[in-house]
Amino acid sequence: MFSNNVNKYLRGEHDMANDFKKLRDKGKSKKKISDLERLANDPVLRTFYNRTAFQLPGDARVRISLDTEPPTA
């Protein structure tokens, strides 16, 4: 919905209050806005990893994925 602000929000640089006001002004349902507010205020966990996938070309029956910790800077 407001996908262009996700990274800013996760870094604490974007306040969702204005976005919720815009939704109210557009006449969106109170339940939808309430659900989005709850989602925005719940704790956030973000995971980083590198994924390497192996699969035979043209054959989706078997796929192997290896997730590894990303290198630290």
Automatic annotation (TrEMBL):
Keyword Transferase: no
Ranges where the VTC domain occurs: 5-69
GO cellular component terms, A-Z: endomembrane system; fungal-type vacuole membrane; vacuolar transporter chaperone complex
InterPro entries the record matches: VTC_Complex_Subunit, VTC_domain, VTC_sf
GO BP: any one term: polyphosphate biosynthetic process
Coiled coil: none
Record's keyword annotation contains Hydrolase: no
Annotated keywords: Membrane, Transmembrane, Transmembrane helix
Subcellular location: Endomembrane system
One family name in Pfam for this protein: VTC
Membrane-topology descriptor: Multi-pass membrane protein
Protein name, as recorded: VTC domain-containing protein
Species for this entry: Gigaspora rosea
Lineage: Eukaryota, Fungi, Fungi incertae sedis, Mucoromycota, Glomeromycotina
